[in-house]
Amino acid sequence: MTAIDFTAFVDELAAISGETIRPFFRSALGIENKSRSGGFDPVTAADRAAEAAMRTLIKRTFPEHGIIGEEFGFLGTMLLLMLFAAVIWYGIQIAMTARSQFGRLLAMGVTVNFFLYIMINALMVMGLIPVVGIPMPLISYGGTAMMTVMFGFGLLMSVHVHRHVTVPRHSSGMI
Question: Which residue ranges make up each domain of the chain?
Answer without folding.
Answer: 3-61, 64-161
